[in-house]
Design brief:
- Helices cover 61% and strands 4% of the residues.
- By secondary structure, it is mostly helical.
- The chain has a four-stranded antiparallel sheet. A two-stranded parallel ribbon has the order 1-6.
- Helix 13 packs parallel to helix 16 (416-437).
- The longest helix has 35 residues, at 280-314.
- The model is unreliable at 173-185 (pLDDT under 50).
Length: 633
């Protein structure tokens, strides 16, 4: 007689209680599963932000959460626009912003540029000292010209003033025609005036002030001022902040879907513009969506493969399908407990179901094998179930405890994503064991009722013995040496492979290939030429900020440092002194009322200007200055 341990006796009582009224046990089990599923669908949420995976008590996690609250732009949705030209990108961005603001989903903020008017009154401080000196010198040189035009702002007065400037300084200063050795050619102001006159004669065009050409050193167009652009100006960014539910999976998903729908609707109107949605919320949303879909696929594959292996091993379908049904019910219980205890799933914990399928099915297999063996030995149905629980139950319980314990250990870690995965997987394994020790025996009582009436001591026919065999495993046991050699080779290969394993710190490589947000994030990184990883720090004073800025900038692992110092002009005392030099000359200037154009005077001034440039052209020879003069002439 085989001695039964105390644990075995307790498990026998558990099975006996479950099988006393098997129908009631089945109804209660299915009812709990239905309630768990309903509760899960109602209350379970998804945490998509990587911030939700960090240890809640860690200082860096607390600081990051504070930064997120204080600087909401860290969590903005980024729309990246890539047109054939900057003007095409700007046109698309302007239209996109209008459509987003008119759309059904409300957004807190939608921006694609900084209004330069915000810098009015302080704009000169953002220029370099050399540029300010040039502006000061030009104001000194052309003070009379500017004052005369301001008093009588008319086109004929402007052309007449230009003639006067050329007459007094033919090859220097304002219009340096480059006729002297080492001279420069800077006819931007005159080109701008002449160009606008020509355009207005052809058709009406918007007014552009030509004075910027006089006082700027840059040779490029100023049309990109204030826009959020990449360094090479090939990408234009639109930053979008949702109005509500920010940071939640459903809120971000609704906002991102709305933006992508608007982009799709605008595609026929802008067929050559490429647009993508990225940013931290889009990356997290796409990551969670892909993980959720992959989890569903993995769950179905796990069930299918498990069923396939069971059918291959048992060569019958009824009992394997029954085990999978019990396992599915235990997973429903697990979802309910997860919703109650944690309330959400993350990128890590969403994958627990395929793990539990592979482990949890083992307890049903152990139970079924021993149960059918007891039947073969002549036990009645109830005796077979109770003896299985008493004799094999402790081993099954020990296996479940060790497997669950391995996951529960993860709950002791600081990383929240791993901690929650450990709790959920460990609990799910124990619930799978509980279902196999309660729900599964009750089902067997209902399915194998024919064994209830078996006379005590009766032994099944030999054919029935064949049904509890596993031919596949039996074949493998016939070749122990081959099995050991194969296992040894795999072990040796695994030991070698460990030495080649490295670490990939690029989180983008964790994303599903082909995801829109990842494609555009990688494109941004390629254009910017720097890493996508950012470190955040704060400072209490401006001096502390400068020290930290310089210290970070000296680190070889840091490609670029951005701070509020970008918005604070440097060398302010020197710049203020230069501005004060020419401020008394500019402050009294008042622009008078616009006067009608004196056509006779304008025609005469243009004719005089033409003669002067004819003379300059004849003296220029084949120098570079000739091309500049021909551009005006």
């Amino acid at each position: 007689m085989i001695a039964i341990s105390r644990t075995g006796r307790l498990l026998r009582r558990l099975v006996r209680a479950s099988c006393r009224r098997p129908s009631l046990t089945v109804i209660v089990s299915l009812g709990l599963a239905a309630l768990a599923i309903a509760y899960t669908l109602e209350a379970l949420t998804f945490k998509t932000s990587t911030r939700d995976l960090l240890p809640p008590g860690a200082r860096y996690a607390t600081l990051y959460a504070e930064y997120g609250r204080d600087f909401g732009e860290l969590e903005d949705i980024a729309v990246v626009v890539e047109g054939r030209t900057l003007e095409e990108s700007k046109a698309f961005a302007s239209r996109l912003v209008r459509e987003i603001r008119r759309g059904p989903v409300k957004f807190q903020r939608v921006a694609y540029r900084i209004d330069p008017k915000r810098f009015e009154g302080r704009a000169l401080l953002y220029l370099s000292p050399d540029k300010l000196k040039e502006i000061r010198d030009k104001i000194f040189d052309h003070q009379e010209f500017m004052e005369n035009f301001a008093a009588t702002p008319a086109l004929d007065q402007l052309i007449s003033g230009i003639n006067t400037q050329i007459a007094t300084a033919f090859v220097s200063s304002f219009f340096d025609l480059g006729l002297q050795d080492g001279g420069t050619v800077d006819l931007r102001f005159l080109k701008e005036v002449v160009g606008q006159i020509s355009e207005r004669l052809d058709h009406p065009t918007p007014y552009r002030s030509p004075w910027g050409a006089l006082f700027t050193l840059d040779r490029h167009e100023e049309g990109d001022a204030g826009y959020f652009l990449s360094d090479d100006k090939s990408l234009l960014f639109v930053l979008v902040e949702p109005a509500s539910n920010k940071g939640s999976f459903t809120g971000d998903q609704e906002a991102i879907s709305a933006i992508r729908n608007i982009i799709a609707a605008l595609r026929p109107e802008f067929p050559h513009v490429q647009v993508g949605v990225t940013g931290s919320p889009a990356l997290s949303n796409d990551e969670m969506t892909a993980a959720f879909q992959d989890s569903q696929v993995a769950t179905l594959l796990a069930f299918a493969l498990t069923l396939g292996l069971l059918l291959l091993a048992f060569r019958r379908a009824a009992k394997p399908l029954l085990m999978l049904a019990v396992l599915a019910v235990s997973l429903a219980w697990s979802m309910g407990v997860t919703t109650l205890a944690i309330g959400h799933l993350t990128l890590f914990s969403v994958m627990f179901i395929p793990i539990v399928i592979g482990i949890g099915i083992d307890y049903g297999i152990y139970f079924l094998f021993r149960y059918e063996e007891e039947l073969f030995l002549g036990r009645s149905l109830r005796e077979a179930l109770e003896l299985t629980a008493a004799r094999s139950g402790p081993g099954i319980l020990l296996g479940a405890l060790t497997a669950a314990g391995a996951f529960y250990v993860l709950a002791l870690t600081d990383f929240r994503g791993i901690k929650e995965l450990g709790f959920i997987a460990g609990t799910s394994i124990m619930l799978a064991w509980l279902a196999m020790m309660t729900f599964f025996p009750a089902l067997l009582m209902l399915v194998d009722r024919r064994h209830l009436s078996r006379p005590k001591g009766a032994v099944p026919r030999a054919l029935e013995l064949e049904q509890i065999r596993v031919p596949l495993l039996e074949r493998l046991t016939r070749y122990p040496k081959s099995v050991l050699v194969t296992a040894g080779l795999f072990t040796a290969f695994s030991v070698w492979a460990v030495t080649t394993v490295g670490f990939d710190y690029n989180l983008l490589n964790l994303q599903a290939k082909g995801t829109e947000s990842v494609i555009w994030e990688q494109k941004i990184l390629a254009k910017a030429g720097r890493s996508g990883f950012t470190g955040l720090a704060t400072a209490s004073t401006l001096e502390e900020l400068r020290r930290k800025h310089d210290a970070f900038d000296r680190l070889p692992s840091v490609s670029e440092v951005d701070s509020v110092l970008l918005l604070i002009p440097d060398q302010q005392p020197e710049k203020v002194k230069i501005i004060r030099d020419f401020a008394p000359l500019v402050a009294p200037v008042r622009v008078g009322m616009a006067q009608p154009v004196d056509l006779e005077r304008l025609a005469g001034a243009i004719e005089t200007l033409k003669r002067r440039f004819d003379l300059a052209l004849s003296e220029a020879g084949q120098s570079d200055a000739r091309k500049e003069i021909e551009g005006v002439h």
